[in-house]
């Protein structure tokens, strides 16, 4: 079958696409920017198409000739995510029906009890499910609770809360029951659902074999990770809003994403039926402890396929740089540094590509940390997203508060800032050959201010650039020469 995978740059879509091909399906992967899929290992086996779910015309060629269409996108983390997801689902449903798609598959969230008012996150997921079920195309909605897997936002929340807080005062929702499921088993269900009979048109609850409270999940995680038992004290007044800030302060998950995730945890998330077992063997689902053990093994071995941060932010094509022909004009601030390096270009490139994450930014680490904390305080992503791989970067990946916008191995790394700032910012680092086996390092920071606040921001940070950016260029050169 030919399968369209939307959200192919995201956490689930990026793992589903290669497994569908391994199962014998033809995969067409949809992204706003084909460049973001250029470097993924499975790209040569798939058909990559560009399209935007907010633009129905772009979906026509994407859905043409498709048997099964996976709807795996959401706008979580954006202020108007409910409107965006509603519009995307309506466009997708209409074009899928017009193009004769045989089945739509959607990975949604659990349904809270009827007597409870759902969080905005779950309300949006339920609305998208209804839109797709009303499309006229046979549709299956797989409702998954907390997904346990290396790189998932839910797992990162659990991991960092447990590892960093041996004693914690928690909201009362840590006593709610949850039926977590391993990402491996979610993917198995999504693949199996492609072969559902045409008359199957409904939702399915997913869940692993263990039903636990969130507090029990933290204790079980601690045991698997070799940590001491955690002291957990639930506190009634801690609202979901305060809880999201608590999560944002301790984990890499920013407030904008933590808030809807926490809002969903105020409801119990337990499977009410197990009808999916007719198509997938539930007795082979991983238990919670084994799912955690495998996730930690992937993290330890630096073998994390996809991360939640890969899908955060707009899945959009790269914005034009101020130096590009498409640039529309305006004020541009730049900071350019060049250094001759007594090392070959290959050695210089290894240092450039190793920037960020655990390796840091090669200059004034305290200043970078303070800037990261300030960004977190105003709802930004800060520095805690780190990097997926210790040695390699790919287009579209998150790198601390940056996004990899372009990479030409051995030549150029361009990063686009995703911090909270009044303007748009880029950082470029490039390597070029010099005479007699040497190389040249060039570093360029660009900032396009937005309003008076943007101009004031640049003026305020300019004195620090002389220290931070010059030190960064100097230490990158020294690192290459010492390698």
From TrEMBL:
This is NAD(P)-dependent oxidoreductase. The lineage of its organism: Bacteria, Bacillati, Actinomycetota, Actinomycetes, Micromonosporales. InterPro entries: ComplexI_NDUFA9_subunit (IPR051207), DUF2867 (IPR021295), NAD(P)-bd_dom (IPR016040), NAD(P)-bd_dom_sf (IPR036291). One of its GO terms (molecular function) is protein-containing complex binding. SUPFAM superfamilies: Bet v1-like, NAD(P)-binding Rossmann-fold domains. Pfam families: DUF2867, NAD_binding_10. Residues 7-109 form the NAD(P)-binding domain. PANTHER family: NADH DEHYDROGENASE [UBIQUINONE] 1 ALPHA SUBCOMPLEX SUBUNIT 9, MITOCHONDRIAL, NADH-UBIQUINONE OXIDOREDUCTASE 39 KDA SUBUNIT-RELATED. It comes from the Bacteria.
């Amino acid at each position: 079958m030919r399968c369209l995978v939307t959200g192919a740059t995201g956490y689930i879509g990026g793992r589903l696409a290669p497994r569908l091909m391994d199962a014998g399906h033809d995969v067409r992967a949809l992204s706003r920017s084909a460049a973001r899929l250029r470097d993924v290992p499975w790209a040569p086996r798939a058909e990559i198409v560009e399209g935007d779910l907010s633009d129905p015309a772009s979906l026509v060629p994407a859905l043409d000739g498709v048997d099964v269409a996976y709807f795996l996108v959401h706008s979580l983390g954006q202020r108007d995510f409910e409107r965006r997801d509603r519009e995307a689902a309506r466009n997708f449903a209409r074009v899928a029906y017009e193009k004769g798609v045989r089945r739509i598959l959607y990975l949604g969230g659990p349904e809270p009890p009827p007597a409870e008012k759902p969080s905005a996150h779950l309300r949006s997921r339920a609305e998208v499910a209804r839109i797709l079920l009303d499309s006229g195309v046979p549709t299956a909605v797989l409702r998954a609770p907390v997904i346990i897997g290396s790189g998932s936002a839910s797992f990162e929340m659990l991991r960092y809360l447990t590892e960093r807080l041996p004693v914690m005062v928690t909201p009362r929702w840590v006593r709610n029951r949850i039926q977590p499921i391993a990402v491996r088993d979610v993917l198995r269900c999504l693949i199996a659902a492609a072969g559902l009979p045409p008359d199957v048109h409904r939702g399915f609850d997913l869940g692993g074999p263990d039903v636990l409270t969130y507090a029990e999940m933290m204790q079980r995680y601690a045991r698997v990770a070799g940590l001491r038992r955690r002291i957990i004290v639930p506190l009634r007044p801690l609202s979901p809003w305060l809880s999201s800030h608590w999560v944002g302060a301790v984990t890499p998950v920013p407030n904008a994403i933590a808030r809807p995730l926490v809002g969903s945890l105020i409801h119990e998330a337990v499977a009410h039926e197990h009808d999916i077992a007719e198509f997938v063997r539930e007795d082979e689902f991983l238990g919670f402890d084994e799912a955690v053990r495998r996730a930690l093994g992937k993290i330890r071995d630096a073998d994390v396929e996809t991360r939640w941060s890969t899908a955060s932010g707009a899945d959009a094509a790269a914005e034009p740089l101020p130096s590009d022909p498409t640039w529309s004009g305006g004020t541009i601030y730049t900071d350019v540094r060049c250094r001759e390096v007594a090392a070959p270009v290959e050695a210089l490139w290894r240092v450039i590509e190793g920037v960020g994450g655990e390796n840091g930014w090669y200059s004034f680490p305290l200043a970078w940390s303070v800037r990261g904390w300030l960004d977190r305080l105003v709802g930004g992503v800060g520095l805690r997203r780190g990097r997926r791989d210790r040695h390699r970067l790919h287009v579209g990946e998150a790198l601390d508060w940056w996004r990899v916008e372009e990479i030409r191995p051995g030549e150029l790394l361009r990063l686009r800032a995703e911090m909270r700032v009044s303007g748009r910012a880029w950082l470029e680092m490039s390597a070029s050959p010099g005479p007699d086996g040497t190389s040249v390092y060039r570093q360029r920071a660009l900032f396009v201010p937005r309003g008076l606040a943007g101009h004031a921001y640049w003026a305020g940070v300019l004195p620090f650039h002389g220290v931070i950016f010059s030190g960064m260029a100097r230490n990158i050169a020294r690192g290459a020469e010492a390698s």
